[in-house]
Amino acid sequence: MGEVQLDVYSFGIMIKGCCEANDLIRALEVLALLEEVGLSPIVVIYTTLIDGCCKNGHIDRAKELFFKIPDLRRYQFKQRCLRLLLLPDKLHQLNLRDAKWKLLVSRK
Fold this sequence. Notes:
The structure is a single chain. By secondary structure, the chain is an all-alpha fold. The chain is built from 7 helices and no strands. It is globular. GO terms for molecular function: mRNA binding.
């Protein structure tokens, strides 16, 4: 019997499970392992982690992950992700010092 080859979707499932179990540390470890084996996270992995960070009060880490999403110029898509992920009561927790972050949050 052969080895199971993990792909980016397998890692995404593990990350989602960790986030749902409120085990953000393990979710971030799985992200690091994904990158270590030479895979690149897809947008859904980032949004899952951002959601997990926000739900656990790690807003700064959520911002870091948000800016790691490839092609930041697609701000309209990212803004939609942000609005879906962050409940309105979470938005006031963000320290919006970063000009890019302010732009992304304020665009309609």
